[in-house]
User: Which sequence fits this backbone?
């Protein structure tokens, strides 16, 4: 499992060949699955806070429609763990 992974909405993040938030989410979810196939869960760090300079860091997955759609498409892959067993498995 990967925990607390995220990226922010940063102006100009696609300049100079950068991926931007949407591309970064797509690439991250794909790479987790393809390079590390034993990873079956990834917990996105969904938070926004105000910085000392009064700017905001917005890591929320739904900070834009495009980011949310990239996340939804990425986690829809059947390789991700979808149904958790939250009860003891009976001994046979």
Assistant:
């Amino acid at each position: 499992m990967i925990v607390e992974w995220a990226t922010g909405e940063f102006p100009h993040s696609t300049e100079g060949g950068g991926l931007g938030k949407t591309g970064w989410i797509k690439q991250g979810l794909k790479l987790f699955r393809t390079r590390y196939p034993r990873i079956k869960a990834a917990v996105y760090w969904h938070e926004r806070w105000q910085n000392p300079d009064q700017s905001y860091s917005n890591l929320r997955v739904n900070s834009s429609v495009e980011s949310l759609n990239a996340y939804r498409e990425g986690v829809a892959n059947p390789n991700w763990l979808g149904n958790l067993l939250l009860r003891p498995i009976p001994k046979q």
Notes: The two ends are 28 Å apart (CA to CA).
